[in-house]
Amino acid sequence: MNKDILSTTTHIDLQFDKEHLWHPYTSMANALPAFGVVAAKGVELQLQDGKTLIDGTSSWWACVHGYSHPKIVAAMQQQAATLSHVMFGGITHRPAVELARLLVNMTSPNLTKVFLADSGSIAVEVAMKMALQYWQGRAKPNKQKILTIKNGYHGDTFAAMSVCDPEGGMHTMFGDLVTKQLFAPAPQSRFDGEFDPEELNEIAAIFEDNHQQIAALLVEPIMQGAGGMRFYHPEYLSALRKLCDKYDVLLILDEIATGFGRTGKLFAYEHSDIEADILCLGKALTGGYISLAATLCSDEVAQGVSDSPAGVFMHGPTFMGNPLACSAAIASLELLQENIWQKQIKSIETQLKAELAEATAFDNVKDVRVLGGVGVLEMNTTLNTAELQQQFVDLGVWIRPFSNLIYIMPPYCITSAQLSQLTHAMKTVAKQISLPCNESVFISHG
């Protein structure tokens, strides 16, 4: 294509964007700068000024196969030309059926029922509603509370906000409209350390005192994402499963960020060899190409919901089971089934551990941690997102820090050289951070 035509057809009016478009977690009075992206391929983003950036975020942890993957693109193109959307009420189609088949076969054996939703937040909402309706069907309608752990993040819609960290700035301003849930201390035993069973004392006491009101325990397995990129011990998750069994409470696992290989297992709960009663999936489900999420549950949960006074599950989004999104998901999951991701994640983890290790000696770095395809530098001070984002762009990478964290979760197909450029940029910027930033930044999912 002619360069002049390309520049005209791909031009982004950044000033109009700044004046009229709301971006995530930004102020319209003092908007953070936005960089115009005109194309993407592999792990690289092309800016409209011609600069190319290595993407260290997988577009908020979703684009695991990289951009413009021919298999996913072809699947979406073919589906768009055939059946891009049709209502799911009273109608079904091959992409939904085949996607559900893949999900049932690749998750734990007890998860047999699939609800296809629009986004991760909605998948969590669906899971919470399933839990409440389940207990209605089991003649225990007083079980209406959700127990969770601090430092969690589960989405921005109202029910999802109610189970996010209660002290996180993003969720404290909506008052009584946000349902008050039960919170236990966040796990402290590190993934790669010794497990301290005493840290279960407080959550066990909450179960003991409140189990007649608790419908479900909802947690992110092994990795707490936006609550601080914290990796906790597998034995803690195993103990939570046992507590749920002991006190007759459902276990909901939010694998929206961790699912599909990111932590080194296909699903993070595999580190603990447990099963969920309800499982939430999203983000990498479609390879990051289009929004789609899924909530899976057991036969027992599905039967309980069906036995509730409503007799049906009370949820049904307009774009539920969207064929276009389902086709992208099928292509993404088929790529995962080739099992190349296992070697890719292992290579990423090994390189991250080697190349980030020197940052442990930096005075302003509080902690360095790596798990699977996730690398984190936890700083001693809150970071200025806008300032650091520009520094990273100048270094040829796309890394978006938040709170006091500089982290990467790159696409699995990243090369060793590209990953080294990301880790070099992380260390370069981290070395320059010395003074506390006066600008407060809400803890968010990116």
From TrEMBL:
It is found in: Cytoplasm. Pathway: Cofactor biosynthesis; biotin biosynthesis; 7,8-diaminononanoate from 8-amino-7-oxononanoate (SAM route): step 1/1. PROSITE patterns: AA_TRANSFER_CLASS_3 (PS00600). The modification N6-(pyridoxal phosphate)lysine is found at K283. Pyridoxal 5'-phosphate binds at G120, S121, D254, P317, T318. InterPro entries: Aminotrans_3, Aminotrans_3_PPA_site, BioA, PyrdxlP-dep_Trfase, PyrdxlP-dep_Trfase_major, PyrdxlP-dep_Trfase_small. The keyword Cytoplasm applies. It holds the Pfam family Aminotran_3. Its cofactor is pyridoxal 5'-phosphate. Belongs to the class-III pyridoxal-phosphate-dependent aminotransferase family. BioA subfamily. This is Adenosylmethionine-8-amino-7-oxononanoate aminotransferase. The lineage of its organism: Bacteria, Pseudomonadati, Pseudomonadota, Gammaproteobacteria, Alteromonadales. The gene is bioA.
